[in-house]
Inverse folding.
């Protein structure tokens, strides 16, 4: 009875050792790639193009591509968002220190660049593997998915920018409109010239 259980234990130990060695080697190469962002992103871009070419040639797996697009959009939002949300923290947005004891806090991303790249690469790899299984090739009308993704992209792009909202922005046209004119005729000629040139405010 000890023979089969001993074999199972030996196989389990060998599998655990292989997993540990693989994990260590994988982490080693990840660490070596950290100071080379351009090469990392170029490799991911090439792999993404291979994935898109495969989807185009197969004329399928649109739902997998849509899911990948939504996930990449979510990652992009995390990459572009600050780690401290002014609304959640009860702050008034980005502001300069008012006292000598206040500390300047630079923009820190919620999702660092390396994790952003790694998550994108892993997602593209998983989506690529999924294209080899027909169970994921759900028949859908892809233009609707594309339109819906574009709508989501622009709605997420309209997320409030608290730092930008704190600064009042004047356009050039408004500043020029606020210039005090010595006489009304010169102002009318200037405004007429702006209208002829296509400017409006």
């Amino acid at each position: 009875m000890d023979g089969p259980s001993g074999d199972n234990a030996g196989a389990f130990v060998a599998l655990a050792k292989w997993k540990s060695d693989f994990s260590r080697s994988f982490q080693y190469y990840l660490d070596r790639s950290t100071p080379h962002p351009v090469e990392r992103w170029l490799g991911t871009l090439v792999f993404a193009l291979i994935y898109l070419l495969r989807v185009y040639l197969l004329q399928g797996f649109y739902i997998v591509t849509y899911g990948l697009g939504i996930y990449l959009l979510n990652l992009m939002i995390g990459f572009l968002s600050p780690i401290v949300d002014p609304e959640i923290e009860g702050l008034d947005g980005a502001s300069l220190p008012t006292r000598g004891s206040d500390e300047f806090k630079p923009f820190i991303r919620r999702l660092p660049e390396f994790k952003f790249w790694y998550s994108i690469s892993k997602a593209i790899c998983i989506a690529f593997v999924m294209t080899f299984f027909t169970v994921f090739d759900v028949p859908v009308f892809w233009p609707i998915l594309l339109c819906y993704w574009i709508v989501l992209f622009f709605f997420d792009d309209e997320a409030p920018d608290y730092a930008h909202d704190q600064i009042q922005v004047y356009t050039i046209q408004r500043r020029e409109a606020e210039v005090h004119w010595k006489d009304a005729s010169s102002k009318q000629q200037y405004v007429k010239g702006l209208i002829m040139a296509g400017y409006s405010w």
User: Anything to note?
Assistant: The chain has nine helices and no strands.
